[in-house]
Amino acid sequence: MATYLAAAPGRAVLVDNTSDPALAGAYPTFLRQGVSVVTPNKKGFSSDLALWKDIFAAAAQGDALVYHESTVGAGLPVISTLRDLVATGDQVTRIEGVFSGTLSFLFNTFAPVSSTTPAAPWSQVVAQAKDLGYTEPDPRDDLNGMDVARKLTILARIAGLEVAAPDAFPIESLIPAELAGLPSTADGITQFMARLPEFDGQMAAIKEEAARQGKVVRYVGSIDVATQQVRVGLQQFAQDSAIAGLKGSDNIISFYTQRYGSNPLIVQGAGAGGDVTAMGVTADLLKVVQRLR
């Protein structure tokens, strides 16, 4: 396919709307032959560090372009903002935020800042999110934290950290250890959802501990550039903080830099969904077409 596209009239662009790791692994082949790449596929940019380096080296060799804005935050300008900060000489010191629309919805619903009615148990909130289509078909693919870890890996690399892989730093899974061994099948999903209420007490205790301190619990990712530490998991936040105040399934990403001081540059909005992801991919494609003219 790469040879075919390279031989096409004009400058070809591969738009990869899959999550296929094999196709992502072939990006260097396309790029070396002058075929630019536009994609929301995180696999090529968050897997092995050698592939990350090969992708951008191949792009330089083939005079091709790589745009992957929608790998983090769907249509939100997260990657472009970070690249602009780095390219203009700002010193990024920390990146922190809620990077999963699914987990944002779960915790905004389970542990709201204020509510006139008691929040539903954790298992019911997960079931509600699944019914609404906010989770993957297997909610464990959201609850294991790996999707957030892949996004953090991409941002950390852009910020200058050579993160080996998304499992090279601490990731707090929300899957109870007793249920981790259930198969990734339709029956396994059914068993997981049926047994999840057994662990509502654990999540309620986490929420209540935060409430006793006047805080709420949220699932966040953080990158400390100075100490080269990346972490994904639960943290407590003051009720008047920007992260605590999120609504629905919104994402929020805060960039702490030398230029912006103690008040971070914040990107906030819908970080998942077909419409906004399509917008992000289309915007990248338009940028590539304009640059290739």
Automatic annotation (TrEMBL):
<keyword id="KW-0028">Amino-acid biosynthesis</keyword>
<dbReference type="InterPro" id="IPR022697">
    <property type="entry name" value="HDH_short"/>
</dbReference>
<feature type="binding site">
    <location>
        <position position="18"/>
    </location>
    <ligand>
        <name>NADPH</name>
    </ligand>
</feature>
<dbReference type="InterPro" id="IPR001342">
    <property type="entry name" value="HDH_cat"/>
</dbReference>
<comment type="pathway">
    <text>Amino-acid biosynthesis; L-methionine biosynthesis via de novo pathway; L-homoserine from L-aspartate: step 3/3.</text>
</comment>
<dbReference type="Pfam" id="PF00742">
    <property type="entry name" value="Homoserine_dh"/>
</dbReference>
<dbReference type="Pfam" id="PF03447">
    <property type="entry name" value="NAD_binding_3"/>
</dbReference>
<keyword id="KW-0560">Oxidoreductase</keyword>
<dbReference type="InterPro" id="IPR005106">
    <property type="entry name" value="Asp/hSer_DH_NAD-bd"/>
</dbReference>
<dbReference type="GO" id="GO:0004412">
    <property type="term" value="F:homoserine dehydrogenase activity"/>
</dbReference>
<dbReference type="GO" id="GO:0009090">
    <property type="term" value="P:homoserine biosynthetic process"/>
</dbReference>
<feature type="domain" description="Aspartate/homoserine dehydrogenase NAD-binding">
    <location>
        <begin position="10"/>
        <end position="69"/>
    </location>
</feature>
<comment type="pathway">
    <text>Amino-acid biosynthesis; L-threonine biosynthesis; L-threonine from L-aspartate: step 3/5.</text>
</comment>
<keyword id="KW-0791">Threonine biosynthesis</keyword>
<dbReference type="GO" id="GO:0009086">
    <property type="term" value="P:methionine biosynthetic process"/>
</dbReference>
<comment type="function">
    <text>Catalyzes the conversion of L-aspartate-beta-semialdehyde (L-Asa) to L-homoserine (L-Hse), the third step in the biosynthesis of amino acids that derive from aspartate (the aspartate family of amino acids), including methioinine and threonine, the latter of which is a precursor to isoleucine; production of homoserine leads to a branch-point in the pathway as it can either be O-phosphorylated for processing to threonine, or O-acylated for processing to methionine.</text>
</comment>
<comment type="similarity">
    <text>Belongs to the homoserine dehydrogenase family.</text>
</comment>
<dbReference type="GO" id="GO:0009088">
    <property type="term" value="P:threonine biosynthetic process"/>
</dbReference>
<dbReference type="InterPro" id="IPR036291">
    <property type="entry name" value="NAD(P)-bd_dom_sf"/>
</dbReference>
<feature type="domain" description="Homoserine dehydrogenase catalytic">
    <location>
        <begin position="77"/>
        <end position="286"/>
    </location>
</feature>
<keyword id="KW-0521">NADP</keyword>
<keyword id="KW-0486">Methionine biosynthesis</keyword>
<dbReference type="GO" id="GO:0050661">
    <property type="term" value="F:NADP binding"/>
</dbReference>
<feature type="binding site">
    <location>
        <position position="42"/>
    </location>
    <ligand>
        <name>NADPH</name>
    </ligand>
</feature>
<feature type="active site" description="Proton donor">
    <location>
        <position position="151"/>
    </location>
</feature>
<dbReference type="InterPro" id="IPR011147">
    <property type="entry name" value="Bifunc_Aspkin/hSer_DH"/>
</dbReference>
<feature type="binding site">
    <location>
        <position position="136"/>
    </location>
    <ligand>
        <name>L-homoserine</name>
    </ligand>
</feature>
<protein>
    <recommendedName>
        <fullName>Homoserine dehydrogenase</fullName>
        <ecNumber>1.1.1.3</ecNumber>
    </recommendedName>
</protein>
<dbReference type="InterPro" id="IPR019811">
    <property type="entry name" value="HDH_CS"/>
</dbReference>
